[in-house]
Model the fold of this input.
Amino acid sequence: MIAASLLGKLIERIAYNNDANAYKELFLHYHKRLLNFSVTITHSKESAEEVVSDVFLKLWINRSTLTTIENFHLYIYIVTKNLSINRALKEKKEQSFSLDEAVVNTKNIYFDPEQLMITSEMQKRIWLAIETLPPKCQLIFKLIREDGLKYKEVAELLNLSVKTIENQMTIALKRISESIRFDLTRLN
Amino acid sequence: MSHTFFLNLLAKKMTGEASTEELRQLESAMKANPDWAYQAEQMQNLWQEESHIHYPEAQLAFEQHLNRLEKAGINFPGSVTTERYFSTAKRKKVLAVSFFSLTVILLLFAVWIGNHGKKAVALQSKKYSEVSSPVGSKTKLLLPDSTVVWLNAGSKLSYNEEFGTINRNVTLVGEGFFDVKKSTTPFIIHANTVQIKVLGTAFNVKAYPDEKTTETSLLRGRVEITLDKRPGELYILKPNEKLVVANEPIGKKIIAPEKKQPIAVLERINHINDTTIIETSWVHNELIFEDETFGDIARKMERWYGITIEFSDDRIISERMSGTFTTETIHEALTALQYSTKFHYSVKGSMITITQ
Done:
């Protein structure tokens, strides 16, 4: 995860110097994360690519105001969410959007077996555990573990209470710990 | 404490959300319950790993993003970046896109090292940097000493932390165009069995392990080349000269101790006209071949397009052709080649099969 101080410097470079390098750095840092987040709402990689591009287009146009944003990390997710919902509504011509329709690609949740010294079979079981979580729970888990958002930030982003985030994280951990336990009993 | 509450606290601890009171509670719960302590250890191990950033995808997406900016009529400073040595308008644009891309990669890498610093140091005593350019794409790098390197598709450049301080040693696998920053510290490239030593100059090195030769083409300045097999000899290249060195056949030991066939040949650089040089054409997005066999052309196209080409007929491999491709798709390129040599091709995924 990008350090807050570094993120701040990047944003200053974009806002004050029109720095193309800083802009690109920001894009490369967020692209994959925002793309995955947008896919959970738009259900389409092509749409999500365009949404992310639109988010960054907006950032560039409004670059002079970027330094006034209090929490940029949260802000960029909120913008992505709003543009994704607009996009999803436009394409499906539906009137509402529900979190329970979120599609989370859990294969993007990264566990490196070598680094973690776990077997690839165990890795598969962890994935399976996460995959079988309810969509909302998967999304919350991913935003916190992969995207480095705080409980409070996820709560704000998804219009949920912090208590709900806590509970969903507990559920996710429970499933994962069960999948690990299974591994141990099998070994014995 | 219930197991659920224990997991609730554990999640908070791992995400940095726990208060000191909650941490204390968690600690005493684990002391009272060794099984939970073990679970906590396992979960915390899983938590350490950070997701990897996938540069090639993001790079490509950024280039598409810049296209959209341009289409939307938005002025972006990246598209006005000037280039020192290649100056036609089209090249400017292509290079402008890649110009800062590697500066950024290196910066991101620095960020990554910053985040993973502790881990990296623990694993390796000497920090090692490696940049690779996947098949089907090119990459421009700015090294710590301000040397600029273009890496052709399917190539890899690596150096360790001593680079820029103690020495300027790099290892190249594949093809790279180097514009070396002048310095009193020699810049040394290890490429296959060849060592190239320079002080400040521009040149191209082609050292794909799967090709028969390693080529060094000099545009300006001076380079010194030594071969692993002949450590005492020094080859000095002048501008517009090219040294072609035979690679050791892979997996085959030379039985005869002294072979008379030359291992190094000095040639001239191939100028097509005043501004176009075949050896460095890839840098400005041109795939050029002149009177080369279909087999050699296919290998270049594989890297260029990120595909695999197979021949179902050996005779056609030795057909000779010439051509220049820039923005052509693989289909357009193959269709163009069909004008000079008769062949058929079929596509299956990223595999192309050429038949007579």
